[in-house]
Structures are given as structure tokens and as C-alpha cells.
Write a structure and sequence with these properties.
By secondary structure, the chain is an alpha+beta fold. It contains 19 helices and 17 strands. The protein has a domain of 245 residues: P-loop containing nucleotide triphosphate hydrolases (Rossmann fold), CATH 3.40.50. The chain starts with a strand and ends with a helix.
């Protein structure tokens, strides 16, 4: 139950705090005073769309806070516990919006997403207004009403889950079947690719080694001449480097024996002689092994050309070519096993077909029962609302395969969508002898208001939402009908907290609590004020609603009579 609402910097509201008791609360006031703004604030708290236009002029942020008594709602406490939100019998919801586009939502002291706030808000408040009038004219909403009334949502959720499993499996199966049609051609190509790469017997690093060998072979004559010349200069020629080093070594031998300081130098020179001699012999071994092999060079060029061709087809490097072969082998394995997978999925599809169709049939049968019960109750409620001879029907037709934005499947000539095998639409005949016609084509504004009220009263007997809000429930009605509507709202308030915005005194007189909303202009700015009316003020407000600006003694007497009569029914 909504116990308190605080609005700050929202539209033309500066600051407004409203306390709501149990029972039937009326909000009334002149047109434009801000009554619907309060509904807008609650809608925002329920996850409604935010806009900077909602923020009061010259302010940077607007906020809406509401406190709820959830002591009689154990299911809400359980839901909060699942979200990790601790609380007691009192629950605070808060939402703030700013001109920067950033907004915040809170459940208690916990920062939450707008979706979470909206989901919880829907469990706490049900708002009936102009939007609901529009929804009632859409046949796809009629299915929702019947399912909610019949308590069929758990069964429908089970069906929907099975339906989605079936559609997902069917998509996978169709993809495999389509792939099968191209499978043989693809398998042949994959086998060719795998054989081509495998037969090439590639090795990582091979290309670099071949390029190095080719470079050596192309330069073999130059390498022979230069290394042979170096050998001769160091070792073989007369007066070679080695011969001169040995001569120097002989010259230093005796002096190094005389002066100990020359001994290390002699040893270094002696070591150099041995190193140069080893170097020369290594050079000789190198050039003697050099081969002029045009045939090997031709083999290398051929192998490099083969590797280049494979890289052009399968990857930029030898490693990528090998990886391409591995992928082809994996795909080939999957394709060769897909035949078995198709048969497996066909079996699963057949089983899910039967299960989905059986659930759809059960759901359809239960809807027929719910539709018959709803017809009886709606006609009874409408009769008490001044539409005594009205005939109300819920017509079930096979699900259309042309449902907009809807996925349909056909099982045994039955077209199914994610909500079952039915499309439902409300038909009505307000007057005796008139043909039944779709609700969207025949109902006036006043009739729609009464139909919504009838449905609300019927469904309210079953639903858990503790607070019902009615905005524009009085559209298109007046006089005796308005009085009946007021009585109905009073009846609903015995089980639920009811908040109603109205212009009709025939409805307002039944209020347990009556607030008047007043718009004032101070220093060039508009302010919305709220006043809780006492018994005398109730008479004045009802008189205003009855007689407008000119309030007479007779008007006040009429207002008192209305209040007295309404209180006598409480």
C-alpha cells in the first residue's frame, strides 16, 4: 500500500508531499492544476520514460520518492531478498532525473537499474488511465486480460518456454539441412585442400632455410674465390701473414727470455700464430666444400614456388597454411558427422512438436473456460454500471500466421505463436438487437471507461497489487452512471487501496479521503499545492464540481446530500 509520496521539481510541482491512507482517496481540482502530473510522477517511479522536459524550469534535477507498506505482501519481501535488498514492513522507492541525462534509481538505500525499479513498481501499483483505454482497443491485449483473469500465466510461461526451445531447435535443424544440400560439394573441396597441403609436407621455418640456401648457391663462385684468396694471403702465399707472424715470433723468442716483461707479449703472439693457422685451415676446408650445383638450385626454386602458391591460397605464412589445413580437417569432421546430427535433431523436434502442441491445446481449452467466465462477470458488472442489456463476448480464433512481428510455426495444420494457438478479441453489443462488433469499432469513451472499470474490479479480486490508481475513469460518463462508478470504486477500495482522479462529484462523494489540488502563481512562477479536505471543505469542493464558479446555497445542499448518501453506503 502506498503510504507517502514526495515529489520535488517535477513539471510545475516545486515540492509536494502526500500521505495516503487505506481505502478510497480522491484527487480533484481545476483543469491544469497538476492532477495528472502526480500520475506522471508515479509512472516515472514505475520505470517510465524520463525526459529533461519533466524537470521544473530553472532546476537541474527532479526526484520522486514513495513509501509503501508491504507488511501484507510476503511475496514482495521474498523478491527483495532475492535481489539482496534488506527491508522491513516499510519500503522506499526513489528515482531522480537530471538535465545532464544521468538518472538514478533506488530501492531502499540500494542503487538499482530502472528495469528493477519498474518490475517492483508493477507489483505495487496498477495505473488505469488514458494509456489503458488505448491498450483495450488493441486485440493483442485481450489475450493478456483473459490469461491474467484465468490465472493462466504459469501454464502459458511453460508453453512459451517449450515453444522457444522448439523454434531454436528448428532453426538449428533447418541450418543443417540447408548445409547438407551443399555438403558434398564442400566435402570434396575440403578433402582437396587437405590433400594439397598435406602432400606439400610443409615444415615451420622451411621457407627461411631454403631462401638462405638459395642465396648461398647463387653466390657460390664468389664465395669460393674470396675465401680461397683469403686462405692464400694468410697461409699459402710466399710472405703470407702466417709466415710473417712466425718470423716475428722467432725474433721475440730470445729477447723474451732476457726481459721477463716481454714474456706475456711473446705468449700472446705465439697464441695468435696458432689461431691464424687454424683460421687459414678452416677457410681452406670451407672453399674446398663449396659445390656448384645448378640442379639443387633448381630444386630450391621449385620448392619456393610451391610454398608461395600455397601461401597465396591459404595464408600469409607456412604456419597459417598449416593452420588452414587443421581448420579444414575440423570442418570436414563436422560435415561428415552432420548426417547423424540431423537424425538426432529430427527425433528431438518430433518430441517437442507433440509437447508444444499438447500444451497449446491445454492452454486453448483453459482460455475457453476463462473467456466464458469472464463474459458472465463482465456482463454482470456492466449491467450494474448502466449497461444492462450489453452482450460481451470473447472470441477465440486460430492464430494468424501474419501476426505482426511474431514468429509462427505450424504443427499438424495448427498455427502456433509464442503465446499459444489462439488470438482473442473482445466483441460487444451495447444495445439489444445490435450485431456483435469488435470492441475497437463500437465502444464510446464512456463505454470504454466502464468496461475497464468492470475488468479492473473482476481482476482485482485475484491480483496481488495493493494500490489501484484510476485516471480518467470518468471519461464520457455522468449522472446516475457516474454514481454507479463511484460505488464500484468504493467496493474495490474495501480490498485494495484506490486512488482516483476525477472531475465528477458523483464519484468524489464516495471518498474516504479527499485532496484538492490547487495551482497558484507567485512572483511569476507556477506552484501546485495540495490540501486535504475536512468535511466542510469537502462540501465546498463538491459544490464547485457541481456548479462551477457560481456556488449557491442550493448547490451546497445538493453536495451535502450526496456526501450523506455516500457515507450511508460506506
Amino acid at each position: 500500500m502506498l503510504t507517502e509520496l514526495h515529489i520535488k521539481n517535477f513539471a510545475i510541482i516545486d515540492q509536494l508531499t502526500i500521505s495516503f491512507p487505506r481505502g478510497f482517496t480522491i484527487l480533484s481540482g481545476e483543469t491544469g492544476a497538476g492532477k495528472s502530473i502526480i500520475i506522471g510522477a508515479l509512472t516515472l517511479l514505475m520505470g517510465g520514460r524520463a525526459s529533461a522536459d519533466l524537470i521544473r524550469s530553472a532546476e537541474e534535477e527532479a526526484s520522486v520518492e514513495a513509501i509503501f507498506d508491504i507488511s501484507r505482501s510476503p511475496f514482495l519481501a521474498q523478491k527483495l531478498a532475492e535481489w539482496g535488498v534488506e527491508g522491513d514492513d516499510s519500503l522506499l522507492l526513489r528515482r531522480a532525473i537530471s538535465r545532464s541525462g544521468k538518472g538514478k534509481a533506488f530501492i531502499g538505500s540500494h542503487l538499482v537499474t530502472i528495469t528493477m525499479l519498474g518490475n517492483l513498481g508493477e507489483e505495487l501499483i496498477n495505473i488505469s488511465g488514458q494509456h489503458e483505454h488505448q491498450l483495450l482497443l488493441k486485440p493483442d491485449q485481450h489475450l493478456e486480460i483473459v490469461d491474467e483473469f484465468g490465472g493462466l500465466l504459469p501454464l502459458r510461461n511453460t508453453y512459451t518456454s517449450t515453444f522457444h526451445q522448439l523454434t531454436s531447435l528448428t532453426q538449428e535443424l533447418n541450418a543443417l539441412i540447408q548445409a547438407k544440400e551443399r555438403r558434398e560439394e564442400r566435402i570434396e573441396l575440403l578433402r582437396f585442400q587437405i590433400k594439397e597441403i598435406t602432400d606439400a609436407n610443409l615444415h615451420p621455418g622451411e621457407e627461411e632455410q631454403l631462401r638462405e640456401e638459395r642465396s648461398i648457391l647463387n653466390s657460390s663462385e664468389k664465395l669460393f674465390q674470396t675465401t680461397k684468396k683469403a686462405y692464400e694471403t694468410i697461409y699459402a702465399d710466399k710472405g703470407s701473414v702466417l709466415e710473417q707472424l712466425k718470423s716475428a715470433l722467432r725474433e721475440l723468442k730470445e729477447p723474451s727470455q732476457i726481459d721477463a716483461r716481454l714474456s706475456p707479449l711473446f705468449s700472446t703472439l705465439e697464441s695468435s700464430v696458432f689461431q691464424v693457422e687454424d683460421l687459414a685451415l678452416s677457410l681452406r676446408d670451407y672453399y674446398q666444400r663449396i659445390e656448384f650445383d645448378p640442379k639443387r638450385l633448381e630444386e630450391i626454386e621449385s620448392r619456393l614456388a610451391e610454398i608461395h602458391a600455397l601461401k597465396k591460397k591459404y595464408g600469409e605464412t607456412v604456419e597459417k597454411v598449416i593452420a588452414s589445413r587443421d581448420r579444414a580437417e575440423h570442418e570436414l569432421k563436422e560435415l561428415t558427422e552432420s548426417g547423424e546430427k540431423i537424425e538426432e535433431l529430427k527425433g528431438a523436434q518430433e518430441k517437442l512438436d507433440k509437447e508444444t502442441l499438447e500444451l497449446a491445446r491445454r492452454l486453448s481449452q483453459e482460455r475457453k473456460k476463462a473467456a466464458a467466465a469472464l463474459k458472465e462477470k463482465v456482463e454482470k458488472e456492466l449491467a450494474s454500471l448502466g449497461m444492462k442489456k450489453t452482450v460481451f463476448e470473447v472470441k477465440a480464433v486460430g492464430a494468424s500466421a501474419k501476426g505482426e512481428g511474431r514468429e509462427n510455426i505450424v504443427i499438424d495444420n495448427h498455427s502456433l505463436h509464442e503465446k499459444g494457438m489462439d488470438d482473442l478479441e473482445f466483441f460487444i453489443s451495447p444495445n439489444p438487437g445490435e450485431e456483435l462488433k469488435p470492441l475497437s469499432r463500437i465502444a464510446s469513451g464512456g463505454e470504454l471507461s466502464r468496461i475497464i472499470l468492470a475488468l479492473k474490479r473482476i481482476i482485482a479480486q485475484e491480483e496481488e497489487v495493493s494500490t489501484l490508481i484510476f485516471d480518467e475513469v470518468d471519461a464520457g460518463i455522468g449522472g446516475a452512471t457516474a454514481e454507479v462508478v463511484g460505488r464500484k470504486l468504493k467496493e474495490i477500495s474495501r480490498r485494495h487501496q484506490v486512488l482516483c482522479i476525477t472531475h465528477l462529484p458523483q464519484i468524489a462523494c464516495f471518498a474516504d479521503t479527499h485532496y484538492s489540488i490547487i495551482k497558484e502563481t507567485r512572483k511569476g512562477r507556477t506552484f501546485t499545492l495540495l490540501k486535504k479536505l475536512n468535511e466542510v471543505e469537502k462540501v465546498e469542493e463538491l459544490s464547485r464540481m457541481l456548479g462551477g464558479r457560481e456556488i449557491t446555497t442550493k448547490t451546497r445542499e445538493h453536495a451535502r446530500e450526496m456526501l450523506s448518501a455516500a457515507q450511508g453506503l460506506s
